[in-house]
Amino acid sequence: MAYETAKFIHILGIIMLLGNVTATAIWKFFADRSKDPKIVGFGQRLVTLTDWSLTVWGAALTMIGGYGAAAIAQIDLVSERWLLLGQILFVASGALWIGILVPLQVRLARMARTFESGDAIPDAYWRASRTWFIVGLLITVPLVAAAWVMVAKPS
Question: What secondary structure does DSSP assign to 24-75, as a single string?
């Protein structure tokens, strides 16, 4: 039962992580599309909030459950190519998130605080927001690929 519990925690983490990544991008897209400073500012604040509450916890549960299940089943995480590939994809995505997306989100959140009361949205926000979407897509691709690797287990 311990293995199944760890595997459930792993899958729950993946659901939280991928669910938040896609849902956040969708509602940020529509908030930005409104061009209403109050809506854009509110949307940006929620991007930061959900990233720290759902993305961080989703990633943590993914790792805790995955490594826990591997330890319980005594699976070598390096010799199994599909597990190694899944970890590489997960780490690559995380490195991009921590190294590029988080600092960009902090900058976007700071800018949003200046116009959330109704002031004009500066061009710098729109440029940074476009970069956020591009980097976010680049981060999502390896996450989706890692989920596929976990299911397909290619040799």
Answer: HHHHHHHHHHH--HHHHHHHHHHHHHHIIIIIHHHHHHHHHHHHHHHHHHT-
**Is-contact 45 112, C-beta < 8 A?**
yes
Per-residue pLDDT at 25: 92
pTM value? 0.89
Cα Rg, the chain, nearest whole Å:
18
What is d(CA 59, CA 142) in angstroms, rounded to the nearest whole number?
13
* CA separation for the pair 104, 85 (Å, rounded): 28
First to last CA, the chain: 27
Residue 82: partners with Cβ closer than 8 Å, 6 or more residues away: 149, 150, 152, 153, 154, 155
